[in-house]
């Protein structure tokens, strides 16, 4: 056992590619415990670490790994042309459901990426992930279950180390000392962000659905990309769906696809976003906006891993990990009847709250530094920096639009500086008057011009949620008035995307 563990740890220290580590782990397992141990480990560890074990299986599959299977499973596999070596077992039969479900038809055989496996006639023990999913095992290993426990622990430990090593290799946290990175880099040195990145690295390797929660502009999309890059699915697509932008009438077909003639205009078969994400990750942004009818279908897919194209007779299997995000309280939506409770529970198996910018301390200035540098390069300036007073103002401002708002504030201030005559050779310093945070605050916390007492009272009474919504309503109205009902400009002033402003206005009953 120690030999196996030390091999794993040596491999980790040597930073071997994961495929090599897995290959060596498979060899060690075979050497120490025989073939069946791998499958048993998979079964044992499934709830702890499916990915490492999937990796083993993939590796084992690639090398036509041999395994003994339960007789009833063997019978199913045999219908697909796979012959399994089997034993007499009186162990409980875990395949009943499967057998009923697939009665009379050959079980489709796929590798773990969902690609159909070409099975040779008499190759005994050719193994499929489908087979493993229903729990293939070996009587010999079953008898010695306890002996495998440390191995499972080692696999779990390896998974954590591996996730950490990968997070470090990917540059889990950018620091001020590092050169300004590519566009998609996550910047942050606060404890809140370090904790978050660690959590992402740990959960990335599991197949659990993840729900990213946080205010608008905190970086949910950015973190969803990081999660995908850290996961074993990183070689496949991450498909982004903005649920708020899906017209209700097309949402189902967009997600699940349709067949020719399913509705007028369906002139040919078309796969949906689930199929586009095959083997990878589907990122359901603004999931709270999904129409109720589509929520029911999504729930079914999450439950059984199948989708049915609109108008199709039969479902088809998909191998997709779902990551969802929302800036709304799904719980409240459930309470108000706008979101299905069962879907909420499915999606929120692993909720990850992303802290607002105002809780990230010095990160505000770190991020401001990146945006300054980006604007300096874009505008061709020699130097662009903040005055001390501006830094102080950025630190104090509550950033309701979070990182996106900060980005917009800096871009706007830089442009203003140039429009006021700054030239390329100048060392440009942005003072508070250019940042204009006072104006932004006024929009968010306006003193009503005709301070109707009733309106003020509305802002100060009711539940916290009602008060917040009253403030939001006021802020949106003021911003729209200030920009002659130009939604794009009002959205910019509020640090929002226009689409998000429309959504917010709808939710607040302003549209
Ligand atoms: N930690 C960060 N480091 C660098 N850039 C960031 C960070 N967080 C967010 N950003 C940037 O802020 C902007 C908004 O981020 P993103 O779109 O991911 O937010 P969001 O939470 O998904 O917003 P919404 O709920 O409005 O869709 C993007 O340009 C993103 O690159």
TrEMBL record:
UniProt entry keywords in alphabetical sequence: ATP-binding, DNA-binding, Nucleotide-binding, Transcription, Transcription regulation
Keyword ATP-binding: yes
Database matches in PROSITE patterns: SIGMA54_INTERACT_1, SIGMA54_INTERACT_2, SIGMA54_INTERACT_3, SIGMA54_INTERACT_4
Positions of the Sigma-54 factor interaction domain: 186-415
Domain of life: Bacteria
CDD domains for the chain: AAA
Pfam families, per the entry: AAA_lid_14, GAF, Sigma54_activat
NCBIfam families xrefs: PRK05022.1 (NF003451)
Name recorded for this polypeptide: Anaerobic nitric oxide reductase transcriptional regulator
């Amino acid at each position: 056992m120690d030999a196996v563990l030390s091999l794993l740890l040596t491999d980790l220290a040597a930073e071997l590619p994961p495929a090599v580590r897995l290959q060596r782990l498979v060899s060690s397992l075979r050497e120490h415990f025989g073939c069946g141990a791998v499958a048993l480990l998979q079964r044992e560890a499934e709830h702890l670490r499916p990915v490492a074990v999937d990796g083993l299986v993939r590796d084992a599959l690639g090398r036509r790994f041999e395994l003994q299977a339960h007789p009833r499973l063997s019978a199913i596999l045999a219908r697909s042309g796979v012959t399994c070596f089997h034993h007499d077992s009186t162990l409980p039969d875990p395949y009943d459901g499967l057998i009923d479900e697939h009665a009379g038809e050959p079980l489709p055989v796929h590798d773990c990426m969902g690609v159909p496996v070409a099975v040779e006639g008499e190759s005994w023990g050719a193994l499929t992930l489908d087979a493993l999913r229903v729990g293939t095992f070996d009587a010999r290993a079953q008898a010695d279950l306890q002996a495998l426990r440390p191995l499972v622990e080692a696999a779990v430990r390896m998974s954590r180390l591996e996730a950490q090593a990968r997070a470090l290799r990917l540059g889990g946290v950018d620091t001020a000392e590092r050169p300004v990175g590519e566009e998609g880099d996550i910047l942050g040195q606060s404890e809140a962000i370090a904790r978050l990145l660690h959590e992402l690295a740990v959960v990335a390797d599991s197949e659990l659905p993840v729900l990213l929660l946080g205010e608008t502009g905190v970086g949910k999309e950015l973190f969803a990309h990081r999660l995908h890059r850290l996961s074993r699915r990183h070689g496949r697509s991450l498909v982004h769906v903005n649920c708020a932008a899906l017209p209700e009438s097309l949402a189902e077909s967009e997600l699940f696809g349709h067949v020719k003639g399913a509705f007028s205009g369906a002139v040919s078969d078309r796969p949906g976003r689930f199929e586009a994400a095959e083997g990878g990750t589907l990122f359901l942004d603004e999931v709270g906006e999904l129409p109720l009818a589509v929520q029911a279908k999504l729930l079914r897919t999450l439950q059984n891993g199948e989708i049915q194209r609109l108008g199709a007779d039969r479902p088809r299997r998909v191998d997709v990990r779902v990551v969802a995000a929302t800036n709304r309280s799904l719980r409240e939506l459930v309470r108000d009847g706008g979101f299905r409770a069962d879907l909420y529970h499915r999606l929120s198996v692993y909720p990850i709250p992303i802290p607002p910018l105002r809780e990230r301390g010095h990160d505000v200035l770190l991020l401001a530094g990146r945006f300054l540098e980006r604007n300096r390069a874009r505008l061709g300036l020699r130097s662009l920096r903040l005055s001390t007073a501006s830094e102080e103002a950025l630190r104090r401002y509550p950033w309701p639009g979070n990182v996106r708002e900060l980005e917009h504030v800096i871009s706007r201030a830089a442009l203003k500086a140039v429009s006021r005559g700054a030239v390329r050779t100048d060392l440009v310093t942005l003072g508070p008057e250019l940042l204009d945070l006072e104006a932004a605050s006024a929009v968010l916390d306006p003193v009503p011009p005709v301070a109707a007492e009733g309106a003020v009272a509305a802002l100060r009474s009711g539940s916290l949620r009602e008060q917040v919504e009253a403030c939001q309503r006021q802020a949106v109205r003021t911003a729209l008035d200030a920009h002659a009902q130009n939604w794009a400009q009002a959205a910019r002033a509020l640090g929002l995307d226009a689409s998000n402003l429309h959504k917010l206005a709808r939710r607040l009953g302003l549209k």
